[in-house]
Amino acid sequence: xxxxxxxxxxxxxxxxxxxxxxxxxxxxxxxxxxxxxxxxxxxxxxxxxxxxxxxxxxxxxxxxxxxxxxxxxxxxxxxxxxxxxxxxxxxxxxxxxxxxxxxxxxxxxxxxxxxxxxxxxxxxxxxxxxxxxxxxxxxxxxxxxxxxxxxxxxxxxxxxxxxxxxxxxxxxxxxxxxxxxxxxxxxxxxxxxxxxxxxxxxxxxxxxxxxxxxxxxxxxxxxxxxxxxxxxxxxxxxxxxxxxxxxxxxxxxxxxxxxxxxxxxxxxxxxxxxxxxxxxxxxxxxxxxxxxxxxxxxxxxxxxxxxxxxxxxxxxxxxxxxxxxxxxxxxxxxxxxxxxxxxxxxxxxxxxxxxxxxxxxxxxxxxxxxxxxxxxxxxxxxxxxxxxxxxxxxxxxxxxxxxxxxxxxxxxxxxxxxxxxxxxxxxxxxxxxxxxxxxxxxxxxxxxxxxxxxxxxxxxxxxxxxxxxxxxxxxxxxxxxxxxxxxxxxxxxxxxxxxxxxxxxxxxxxxxxxxxxxxxxx
Amino acid sequence: xxxxxxxxxxxxxxxxxxxxxxxxxxxxxxxxxxxxxxxxxxxxxxxxxxxxxxxxxxxxxxxxxxxxxxxxxxxxxxxxxxxxxxxxxxxxxxxxxxxxxxxxxxxxxxxxxxxxxxxxxxxxxxxxxxxxxxxxxxxxxxxxxxxxxxxxxxxxxxxxxxxxxxxx
Lengths: 522, 168
Prior knowledge:
The structure holds two protein chains of two kinds. Chain A has helices spanning 28-40, 96-107, 203-207, 212-219, 227-241, 248-276, 280-301, 321-346, 349-355, 363-368, 373-377, 413-437, 487-497, 506-513, 518-521; strands at 10-12, 20-25, 44-52, 60-67, 72-79, 162-167, 179-185, 188-195, 310-311, 314-315, 454-460, 465-472, 478-484.
């Protein structure tokens, strides 16, 4: 089938996963034209990565995921062996910028024009050494490459009274590392530039040659707060590739786990957001509720964050009626607690003074930057992969749950707080509904790898859209796995969100997005 | 204000005196008491994420919740390594964080303690050593105690902190 009458022919990906259509662009112009058309129809650039296919007798391949009203289109473009240059999509979708720079650093696919600074490569390996090329020589035996401190040309802002505040990579709190370069005049932020990549630990290289089971453990450790979302997206990709459909019970249990993960993170964020506005009461209360929540996870799923429970073919273990009843009872208790706390948050003038009109991004910007998740919904965009839209059917079991996406069009910290509150209540409703309708049956079936097969998984994680692209090699092991975190698109939005505010508001604005470093640094 | 105070009152004090507690709670209190008894004063910790997936950080955060109440017992997370007695380091140490970790270590006054947190901090975990990863924390700075787990739950972290303090 065709989208927007563009010449790329698409075929639907089979299976019970999120709706995905696969297509190939014949050349860079073809791909650019499709990207322009997606942009014109308010679509998003959802992910972009590169792959070395020279062992298969081909050149390099560029993969782009575009999110349309109907679902996701996966467009690939083959590039020649000698001169792998992809079309620069950053002029159409600004979100492409960092992904293209990472693709250049990792695979050596170049993009003409735009920002040519390295992204993931700091000073730890040479410029012409590409980690994801098959024939890249191993680093020098024993000593490795010299790890040189790298000089990064930040964009300079001139003018009287303008000065820079460098922050990081080690931040003041217990958080992941990254560097923020503020240019300020007085207390007013003129510009924020992020430099990430500090968490880069070679995840994509590590995937190569792993079995599906090994890959499942690794994917659950890319972003610890979203382990269920990543594991599900990966399992979805693997199951699609291998033409396997997990049972209804397995899919129901996965959704139950994912919603528990969403609630756990929202509770933590709601507490931390109170704390960042000097309302320690909020932190104490929400962290108490989160701890209760995690302890039940440990008792029922054997892990506080439910790691390694979602596996290709289903889930690792079943849970009995007693456990389901316990989960249901906990939902009732938590619902009442959060309702009371929301009233306190809403009526606290000091807190609202900090939340309201702070860190604003509007729907136009959210669309322009291809945002998903809380960040998008807090500008009024009704984007939620779990919910029906006119031309979009959510994956099982969400199709049958009638998810009501949260939305708030104010675009400020207050909106992102409100969306989290609404989503806690909606997720509690979903968990109760899943418990009430969970079919019986096996929870895990075998996934026999199909050599050379590929698949894409898309899951609405608590932060936003988590995507995993997967291709198997001739022996059924992983040839290439690319996980994509929604933070890729949302980090640049943070650079915009702080512009009208003062430096002391930054921690609050930053926390209101609570983005992943490890998920984008890989 | 009234609902807020009512909620505080209704929540009560979750960190009760040891005698009224059982199981895990008693263990938490015993660990707190031992740490304080050994130190005779507060312990300050600088947490350094040198490449983790954020899982270990979530559990380190949990140490501050009302159940574990680490700060209530005088163990405090500080913003600068210059204020710290102990570095709590999660890994694997990425090459891109290697220099930053060394600097933080050098900035921490002697005598200092280093606790490597999580399977990745202890031995590189699933990520191991590669072009991008130095692996275990002790491949970069000297480590006193290792706390394995993926991620280690708060109680294991408390035990690790105690073990490091006992060793010093």
